[in-house]
DNA sequence: GCCGTTTTCGGCCCGACTGTTTTCAGTCG
């Protein structure tokens, strides 16, 4: 059992305890333990013989260590089993619907015996929820909409989840001798926000036709396979326990490029590419680009060879959507897309003053290690009480600490890194901010964010944001739209108003790097560029580790055809950055 | 259930917002 599974089981147990109205502190212990387990770099299953090492992990005590030992050896644990006698596992899925919490799930179960989404939908449509306390027509309508949204999105997996699975599977495949390279293809390689299934392409001496069967057997016997769907000459398909379908193809080196091109897609890109090949008397398939007349192979080994043979510049996977990239590649006008190393600073992160885990200095040193030239410390303000948000007094004191660290590092590292004082203020219902202007005036970076967006009508949310960015101290609009409640389509309609006004005011809009925190999809990013918005790409890091988790965010930027010139924090120095932000009053 | 003790119990991030109330429970972050 791997750490991720252990973490998931502990987290699910916490949810079941919540439904069971258990001790909130006990519940939190399970959640904290789950989080701690997930962050471990060593597999706990290898430590169960040495429970003392488990106790060394913060958040894991005697009881939790026993739980983990039990989980690893039996696959479950007594408390979990006991709760599953009382409740159904499908109830955990109900918790994922917007507006559904443990109390409501418990009530639905006791009053209506509703334990899954289908039954809930039926009950809602029949008006049965109206008979329950605190549930009216509005709640019912919102719930039905939520169910609809949930169903539409749940068949796809988020890119970071998919990437994690891809990495784990790759590591297991890699153990077979004679495997050189494993590349995820499909929408994962193109950087889509979600992927339907996982395509893994594998090559190396072990994948040559005469010997490939042994490697195929190795893949088909991977321990994490839930259901084996198919096993062919060079392809294995299976699903994982979470229902993610994985297709692994083992291909000879000589045709790896053609396969990579073919399986990366998109479908529309490939169709257009094949049309172009035919015009040149060539044919393109998953094995090679070849002449139509005598099947002579023109290119197959690498993608670069194939594009070159079609008189095209190499097209990065993120652009392969048949939305103008072929024309640009033919005319040598493809953009020089932004890369990770172009990002010179990070302007949104938290420390242990609020809900982060590391100190100002630790964050700064991590940024230095990543090669950044400047960062802003933007802890939460008081409205986010659960994060121990800063009130005006504490915020001002925090600035002093940030400046002190900045001064220390300046002398220690000869100005290699600057640490700017900042704050992430919350936008209240009336669009005002929750700290005084006099406090904000002391900050270099003020990020304004809406945090309470439960069941908030989009129009009101939009008005709230529009009002907030009128505050002259706001220099960055943080995660510009709500995450859970607002559907993507709705965002596309309403975000344009926000982007327009932000652009007029010179307020930069933030693109958060981690998908879990990201709100601007590639379409919205393109929209932002169109309206001349300043864009900053941040991590919203709460730990030093998160400070490095920026690659998905970059992929998103690349999908939007953005170049270093489009992104504000590609400025080489803090000074240059600050002059490019909205001027302070 | 964890942790740190003024070491073996008592504390453990809590305010905003919504829908349904008519004083508040539940959800969210």
Automatic annotation (TrEMBL):
**Reaction equations catalysed:** a 5'-end 2'-deoxyribose-2'-deoxyribonucleotide-DNA = (2E,4S)-4-hydroxypenten-2-al-5-phosphate + a 5'-end 5'-phospho-2'-deoxyribonucleoside-DNA + H(+); DNA(n) + a 2'-deoxyribonucleoside 5'-triphosphate = DNA(n+1) + diphosphate; 2'-deoxyribonucleotide-(2'-deoxyribose 5'-phosphate)-2'-deoxyribonucleotide-DNA = a 3'-end 2'-deoxyribonucleotide-(2,3-dehydro-2,3-deoxyribose 5'-phosphate)-DNA + a 5'-end 5'-phospho-2'-deoxyribonucleoside-DNA + H(+)
Which key words tag this protein in UniProt? Answer: DNA damage, DNA repair, DNA replication, DNA synthesis, DNA-directed DNA polymerase, Exonuclease, Hydrolase, Methylation, Nuclease, Nucleotidyltransferase, Sodium, Transferase, Ubl conjugation
- Pfam family, any one: HHH_5
The answer to whether UniProt assigns keyword Mitochondrion to this entry is no
Please state what the protein is called: DNA polymerase beta
Q: Which domain of life is it from?
A: Bacteria
| Phylogenetic placement of the source organism | Bacteria, Pseudomonadati, Acidobacteriota, Terriglobia, Terriglobales
A molecular function (GO) held by this record is: DNA binding
Domain Polymerase/histidinol phosphatase N-terminal per the UniProt entry, residue ranges: 345-429
Query: Where do the DNA-directed DNA polymerase X domain residues begin and end?
Result: 1-321
Where in the cell is the protein located? Cytoplasm
Does the record's keyword annotation contain Nuclease? yes
**A biological process from GO:** DNA repair
């Amino acid at each position: 059992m791997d750490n991720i599974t252990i973490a998931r089981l502990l987290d699910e147990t916490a949810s079941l305890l919540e439904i069971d109205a258990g001790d909130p502190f006990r519940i939190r212990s399970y959640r904290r333990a789950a989080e701690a387990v997930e962050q471990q770099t060593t597999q706990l299953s290898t430590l169960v013989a040495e429970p003392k090492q488990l106790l060394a992990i913060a958040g894991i005590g005697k009881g939790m260590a026993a739980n983990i030992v039990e989980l690893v050896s039996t696959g479950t644990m007594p408390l979990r089993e006991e709760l599953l006698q009382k409740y159904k596992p499908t109830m955990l899925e109900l918790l994922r619907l917007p507006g559904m919490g443990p109390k409501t799930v418990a009530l639905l179960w006791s009053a209506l015996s509703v334990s899954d989404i289908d039954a809930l939908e039926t009950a809602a449509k029949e008006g049965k929820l109206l008979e329950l306390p605190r549930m009216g027509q509005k709640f019912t309508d919102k719930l039905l909409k939520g169910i609809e949204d949930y169903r539409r999105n749940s068949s796809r997996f988020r890119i970071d989840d998919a990437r994690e699975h891809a990495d784990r599977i790759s590591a297991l495949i890699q153990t077979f001798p004679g495997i050189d390279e494993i590349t995820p293809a499909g929408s994962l390689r193109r950087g889509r926000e979600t992927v339907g299934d996982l395509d893994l392409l594998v090559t190396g001496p072990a994948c040559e036709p005469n010997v490939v069967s042994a490697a195929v057997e190795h893949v088909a016997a991977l321990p994490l396979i839930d259901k084996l769907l198919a096993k062919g000459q060079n392809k294995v398909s299976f699903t994982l326990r979470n229902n993610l379908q994985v297709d692994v193809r083992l291909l000879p080196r000589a045709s790896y490029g053609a396969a990579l091109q073919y399986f990366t897609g998109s479908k529309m890109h490939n169709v257009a590419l094949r049309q172009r090949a035919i015009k040149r008397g060539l044919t393109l398939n998953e094995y090679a680009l070849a002449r139509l007349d005598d099947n002579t192979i023109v290119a197959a080994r690498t993608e670069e060879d194939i594009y070159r043979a079609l008189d095209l510049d190499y097209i990065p996977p993120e652009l392969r959507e048949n939305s103008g990239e072929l024309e640009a590649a033919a005319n040598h006008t493809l953009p020089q897309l932004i890369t990770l190393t172009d990002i010179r600073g990070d302007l949104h992160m938290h420390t242990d003053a609020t809900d982060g885990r590391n100190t100002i200095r630790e964050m700064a040193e991590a940024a230095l290690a990543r090669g950044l030239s400047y960062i802003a410390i933007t802890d939460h303000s008081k409205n986010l009480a659960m994060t121990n948000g800063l009130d005006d007094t504490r915020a001002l004191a925090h600035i002093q600490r940030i400046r002190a660290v900045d001064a220390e590092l300046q002398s220690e590292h000869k100005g290699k890194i600057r640490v700017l004082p900042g704050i992430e203020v919350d936008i209240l219902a009336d669009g005002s901010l929750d700290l005084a202007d006099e406090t904000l005036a002391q900050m270099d970076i003020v990020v304004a964010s809406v945090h309470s967006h439960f069941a908030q009508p989009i129009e009101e949310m939009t008005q709230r944001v529009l009002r907030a960015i009128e505050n002259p101290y706001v220099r960055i609009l943080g995660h510009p739209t709500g995450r859970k409640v607002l559907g993507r389509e709705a965002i596309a309609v309403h975000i344009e108003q926000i982007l327009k006004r932000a652009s007029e005011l010179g307020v930069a809009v933030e693109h958060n790097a981690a998908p879990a925190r990201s709100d601007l999809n590639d379409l919205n990013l393109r929209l932002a560029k169109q309206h001349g918005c300043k864009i900053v790409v941040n991590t919203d890091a709460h730990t030093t580790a998160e400070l490095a988790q920026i690659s998905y965010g970059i992929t998103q930027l690349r999908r939007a055809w953005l170049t270093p010139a489009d992104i504000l924090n590609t400025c080489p120095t803090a000074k240059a950055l600050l002059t490019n932000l909205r001027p302070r009053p």
